[in-house]
Design brief:
Blueprint (H helix, E strand, L loop, with lengths): L1 E3 L12 H9 L3 E11 L6 E7 L21 E4 H10 L1 H6 L3 E5 L7 H14 L2 E6 L9 H5 L3 E5 L5 H8 L4 H12 L4 E7 L7 H14 L8 E8 L5 H7 L13 H12 L7
Parallel strand pairs: 3-5, 5-6, 6-7, 7-8, 8-9
Antiparallel strand pairs: 1-2, 2-3, 2-4
Helix pairs in contact: 2-4
The protein binds iron/sulfur cluster.
Iron/sulfur cluster binds next to loops.
């Protein structure tokens, strides 16, 4: 179930350019694309999912290319988002849910996320960070201490396939996952299965081996589950609207057999797979 909550007022945002940049750097202001109230996705329970604008990756299968440009988001003062969180705090907590910050890439705005998660921690609200991990070095220990769950998108296991899939390097994601595991931060690893792009046996094996290796760090067992997400074409119209050449124009969703094979590769490593 998805409820579009619409946009609140942004009245408190500063108007001067330098004043605005200072407020973004300080985390008093965020560039926000949209938000939704959702159930059974983006973490446990009913969640307020906030999509921040801006992303450093260019995933071929991205279904939110309209979040890529941080300048195309809407300015929202931290107080505005806090008010929205407080409005839905009861439904989030009674359903075992919480707040998820997604994107785009939330770690492009680490100070804003830090302030929001601090507020949630003070109110006892569960927090989930949905990230590729590429900018994991931007996340302070303070931010991670207030993070209940990380939804870590590992987009490929082989460096060259990761580069082809995202346009960026794999290593920062691997490093971030290890840091999380050493700190015993719960993780749900996510892997988008795209026929002809990420579905190679060796590529999947590399992700599965990495996920299994994380279970040996810290107190062990940080990876609570692996979500294998079948590719879909729901983002195609957005690529067209943006005038971006869409590389997966003719790529079908994976077959049942392929999804089963890939889930089986993760299960064979002793991982819980959904
Ligand atoms: S990290 Fe997410 S928002 Fe960024 S390009 Fe990839 S799928 Fe799109």
């Amino acid at each position: 179930m998805i409820i579009d909550l619409g946009l609140p007022t942004f009245a408190s945002a500063p108007t001067g350019r330098s004043e605005r940049l200072a407020a973004v750097r300080d985390g008093m202001l965020g560039s926000v694309h949209s938000w939704e109230l959702v159930t059974a996705v983006d973490g446990p329970g009913t969640r307020l999912t906030v999509f921040l604008a801006g992303c450093a990756l260019r995933c071929q299968y991205c279904h939110n290319p309209d979040t890529w440009n941080i300048n195309h988001g809407r300015d929202l003062a931290v107080s505005g988002l806090v008010a929205l969180i407080d409005r839905y705090a009861t439904i989030m907590t009674v359903t075992g849910g919480g707040l998820t910050v997604s994107g785009g890439e939330p770690l492009l705005q680490p100070a804003f996320v830090t302030r929001i998660f601090r507020h949630c921690a003070e109110r006892g609200i569960h927090t989930a960070l949905d990230t590729s991990g590429f900018l994991g070095a931007q996340a302070s220990d303070e931010l991670l201490a207030d993070t209940s769950l990380v939804l870590l998108d590992v987009k490929s296991g082989l460096p060259e396939v990761y580069r082809e899939t995202t346009g960026r390097e794999l290593q920062p994601t691997l490093d971030f996952g290890r840091r999380l595991a050493r700190a015993d931060t719960p993780m749900w690893l996510r892997f988008v299965l795209v026929p002809g792009l990420t579905d190679g046996v060796e590529n999947v094996e590399a992700v599965a081996a990495y996920a299994a290796s994380l279970q040996e760090l810290g107190s062990g067992g940080s990876v609570e589950r692996v979500e294998v997400l079948p590719f879909h074409q729901l983002g195609r119209d957005k690529w067209h609207e943006l005038g971006e050449p869409y590389p997966l124009e003719n790529t079908p969703p994976p077959s049942r057999e392929l999804v089963d094979r890939v889930r089986g590769q993760f299960r064979a490593r002793g991982l819980t797979v959904t």
